[in-house]
Each structure stands twice: as C-alpha cells, then as structure tokens.
C-alpha cells in the first residue's frame, strides 16, 4: 500500500501559510538537499486547489530545474482535490471531486510509490481527520509569525505521533518526521 506523506514548511508557531514570505531566508544548501530528497522519494503529488494553482503557475515554466525538483514535479502524476475546478491542465494531473476520503483510500491502494501532499492545509486537515495520513515530514523554520493558517488547527482531534527522524540544519531549520501511533 502506498503511504500518504504530508510534507510541510512550518514556522516555530505552526503556521504554514505564506511560506514565500519567511522560508527563503532559511534555505541553506543542506535544507535544499533535504527538500530535493523528499520530492524525489515520492512518486505522486497530492494538492488542494489553491496550492495546485500556485504550483501550476510556477513549476511548468522552470527550465533550470529549480532546487533539483522542477523536472520531477512537472513529470510525476499529480492529483488535485477541488469542488470548483472544471479541468486541471498541468501535465499528468487528475482532478478529484466528490468523496475525497474514498478517492484517496483508492489511490493509496493502487500500486506505486508514496504520495506527497504539499501545502493544502484544509485538505491535509481533512485527511488527518479521516486517518489517511501515514507520515508527517515537517521542516520547522526558526521564525514566529503569530498569525496564519496552521497545519494542526484549533479543535482538531489528533492522535499521538511517533518521532521517526529529527535533523537540524545549518540555517536553524529542523526536520521532524512523525508517524501517527
């Protein structure tokens, strides 16, 4: 069975929104290598509509293989969850509508490698609540922004997590990998 990995950039206070405003200052060479390894290790990409639109506007035009991941992101199978999109034009993208949890369960049962969910806070939260997340891959940045969308929203019922890896980078970013217990 394929694993669903929620891979996120977070601030120390848990904010994942507007990472383009705080993340770039902390992308040291070793952080970039970790991001590249995570993207390369997954076979498919899962996105919510907002993140999909941001990615689809940026990555197809990257000709220098930015961070060593542009080619992978552009060629790999992508799945976008949306109730409003009529079509998804980024190469190799499939639109998921309707019973999202059911469709993700089916996707996880198909042959193939791991599925990486990036950004997409609302989708990540709904998949956590449905018990479909197999791992969290969190790059925690040494910055506090005080407001914004958080991965773990107030009121969420989240089971315990088991730490499977931690690593500190030169820029102060910390990788935390957890699996639900």
Mean pLDDT: 93
Radius of gyration from CA coordinates: 16 Å
Helix-strand makeup class: alpha/beta
Largest sheet data: 8 strands, mixed
How many helical stretches? 5
Poorly predicted spans: none
Total strand segments:
8
Q: Major sheet: order of its strands? A: 4-3-2-5-1-6-8-7
Q: Write down the overall geometry.
A: globular
Order of helices and strands: EHEHHEEHEHEEE
Helix content: 25-40%
The CA-CA distance between the termini, in Å, is: 18 Å
Strand content: 25-35%
Describe the protein.
It is a single chain. With about 180 residues, the protein is an alpha/beta fold. Helix content is about 25%, strand content about 25%. It is built from 5 helices and 8 strands, in the order E-H-E-H-H-E-E-H-E-H-E-E-E. The chain has helices at about 30-40, 50-60, 70-75, 100-110, 120-130; strands at about 5-10, 45-50, 80, 95, 115-120, 135-140, 160-170, 175-180. The protein has an 8-stranded mixed beta sheet with strand order 4-3-2-5-1-6-8-7. A hairpin with a 5-residue loop joins strand 7 (about 160-170) and strand 8. The longest helix is centred in the N-terminal third of the chain and has 13 residues, at about 30-40. The relative contact order is 0.26.
């Amino acid at each position: 069975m394929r694993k669903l990995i929620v891979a996120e950039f977070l601030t120390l206070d848990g904010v994942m929104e507007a990472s383009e405003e705080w993340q770039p200052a902390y992308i040291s060479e070793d952080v970039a290598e970790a991001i590249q390894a995570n993207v390369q290790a997954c076979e498919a990409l899962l996105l919510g509509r907002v993140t999909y639109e941001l990615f689809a506007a940026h990555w197809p035009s990257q000709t220098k293989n930015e961070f060593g991941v542009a080619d992978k992101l552009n060629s790999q199978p992508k799945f976008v969850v949306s109730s409003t999109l009529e079509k998804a034009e980024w190469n190799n993208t499939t639109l998921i509508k309707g019973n999202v949890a059911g469709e993700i369960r089916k996707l996880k049962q198909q042959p193939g490698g791991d599925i990486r969910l990036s950004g997409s806070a609302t989708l990540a939260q709904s998949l956590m609540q449905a018990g479909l997340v197999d791992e969290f891959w969190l790059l925690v940045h040494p910055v506090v922004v005080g407001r914004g969308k958080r991965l773990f929203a107030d009121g969420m019922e989240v089971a315990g997590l088991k730490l499977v890896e931690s690593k500190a980078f030169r820029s102060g970013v910390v990788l935390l990998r957890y699996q639900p217990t």
